[in-house]
Design brief:
AB_hydrolase_sf, hydrolase activity, single chain, alpha/beta, hydrolase, 2 domains, 282 residues
Length: 282
């Protein structure tokens, strides 16, 4: 593995690339103290944490990165293991243990990583995520079916629009009811994985999924856990939050009102207060 590190002038942030051989992964680190790892959702990139960065780096050494196929990282050329990429990154950066916060796909990755490497994880925060093996109930959202159809037709602009409708707006709002700045920022990030074909190439068929899947192993997690979700997210995400909170002994659950899949972007001050409060009690 090769690294290209650079220290940005005027601040304390170190940014670089990790080359795993199957693509270069972009990451940033800033702050001192215990390491807090931020893992982004599967339709945006590490910029989703911009409103958390200053608040969290005042208390922790914070690491965020773009998964392969997202942001500044290389596109994926085939299925990858998200949890294995996280493991390789932590090992090469010499991080022996961390507190991990993941949203959506990032939350699923964080759960899998915790089950596979419990000795490396001090605490876990899962946002808007379902564990691997979680069986969705009912009919899939109509917008999801439209998105898959647009993907088959190669209508990438429509794919991106529908992904924003699905996840940023959520199941119970129209676009005009959502902060336009949040939608615009998410759209800018979303265009990259859509153009890269990330979901179709990798995340619809991930490499070496955790076996047995996490949904049946949640009771094995014995570290402090905080489960978060937005009240306006898809009801199945809220049901997954209930499962996580019920199956993991001692887990705390917080539902943030008037937000959907990205509560940290919609209500950053409230989100930051909840996360830092949870971490400060550990």
């Amino acid at each position: 593995m090769e690294f290209g590190l650079k220290l940005k002038e005027g601040d304390k942030m170190t940014a670089g690339y990790a080359d795993f051989g199957d693509g270069k992964l972009y990451y940033e680190i800033e702050g001192n103290g215990e390491t807090l790892v931020l893992i982004h959702a599967g339709f945006v990139d590490s910029r989703m944490w911009d409103e958390q960065w200053k608040a969290f780096t005042q208390h922790y050494r914070v690491l965020r990165f773009d998964m392969l196929g997202f942001g500044k990282s290389d596109p994926v050329t085939g299925p990858v293991s998200r949890r294995q990429d996280l493991y390789r990154l932590l090992q090469e950066l010499g991080i022996e243990h961390a507190r991990i916060l993941g949203c959506s796909l990032g939350g699923e990755t964080a759960i899998d990583f915790t089950l596979e490497h419990p000795e490396l994880v001090r605490s876990l925060i899962v946002v808007s995520a379902a564990p691997g093996g979680f069986e969705m109930r009912g009919e899939p959202p109509a917008l999801l079916l439209e998105m898959l159809q647009a993907l088959e037709q190669g209508d990438l602009a429509r794919v991106s629009d529908l992904q924003i409708r699905l996840w940023v707006d959520g199941s119970f709002r129209q676009p005009e009811q959502v902060d336009s700045r949040v939608r615009q920022r998410a759209t800018e990030m979303n265009r990259i994985p859509v153009e890269n074909g990330t979901w179709a190439i990798d995340d619809a068929n991930p490499l070496s999924p955790l076996a047995p899947p996490a949904a049946g192993r949640l009771g094995d997690i014995s570290i402090p856990v905080l489960v978060m979700a937005g009240a306006l997210d898809n009801p199945e995400i809220l049901r997954a939050a209930d499962l996580l909170a019920n199956e993991i002994e001692g887990a705390e659950k917080v539902i943030i009102p008037d937000t959907a899949h990205l509560p940290n972007m919609e209500k950053p001050a409230e989100f930051n207060r909840i996360v830092l409060g949870f971490l400060s009690r550990l």
